[in-house]
């Protein structure tokens, strides 16, 4: 009965959210649209988390988490491509920054905190944690270098440097996938923690994961579309909206899967969703957007603002410090959330 109740709530809230978005004013004003979509996100989040857990049961925690992060970032990539095509580079860079620090600080922080409140200490593969820390450092270096040399280079040279760095990062990320999923798969695997039988069969789990991701993509777009009027109403900056509101609200459903995994003592999957998603954004999605922008005749560079670089650097430093030893507790989650709050206040005041 409980399962049917959730299914009914999922379907009804999603359909109502769609109606609110497409009918719009005067029947549904932006505030009403936002709250309806927010309720729908709660149901979609539960659906996505359950699908991820079921896939992880068959494919392993790492691959299950990777699939969740990839499907979630695919929706974000599609939205970003349209923004790049329209030349909204600053919004794209702000949203990239928000996704990276949101995953490293907010998502990981909530996962560690809520998982730690249920389990005194949670562990995951320490070798994987070390590699993740190194990749976080690579992401910071790759974004720091173009910004550091930008004043000494012409516009064309900045674009050329961004294209070269982007190509290198994509190759490095693909090699990391081959390293972690093929040649060193066993060394980086987590100990399997079983919690009963999966909800669905292997094939049905994959189908539902794809379906949940599609629903996340729609809900993300519907939620984000209401934020612009909110930002104008309350006088919020473009940087704050892109880096925080869009990142938090637009990815809420996808990120909740990490918290669900942590609450089930599957910290390996939670880490893969949170840190893995940040790394995928920094090492693959952002560089890919630079390369795709060449086809639109309006090239985007990898030169991020000082504020954005500081935020990404700080997030990578604290996330690496906390996750490198391969175990977490609830207070470390508090530390991550405190840093996120500090950065958020600073962005709000800019």
Structure in a nutshell:
By secondary structure, the protein is mostly helical. Helix content is 81%, strand content 1%. Helix 1 (2-23) crosses helix 7 (202-234).
Characteristics of this structure?
350 residues; mainly alpha; 81% helix
Mean pLDDT equals 83
Largest sheet: 2 strands, antiparallel
Radius of gyration: 20 Å
**Proportion in β-strands:** under 5%
- What string gives the helices and strands in order? HHHHEHHHHHHHEH
Give the proportion of residues in helices: over 70%
Secondary-structure-based class equals mainly alpha
**Count of DSSP helices?**
12
Which runs of at least 5 residues are low in confidence (pLDDT < 50)? none
Strand arrangement within the widest β-sheet reads 1-2
Please give the alpha-carbon distance between the first and last residues.
50 Å
Shape: globular
Number of strands: 2
Task: Walk me through this protein's architecture.
- With 350 residues, the protein is mostly helical.
- The chain has 12 helices and 2 strands.
- A two-stranded antiparallel sheet has the order 1-2.
- Helix 3 (61-85) runs parallel beside helix 10, helix 4 runs parallel beside helix 9 and helix 4 runs antiparallel to helix 10.
Draw up the topology in text.
Elements: H1 2-23, H2 30-59, H3 61-85, H4 89-118, E1 122-123, H5 126-149, H6 155-183, H7 202-234, H8 238-250, H9 252-263, H10 267-293, H11 306-323, E2 327-328, H12 330-349
Antiparallel strand pairs: 1-2
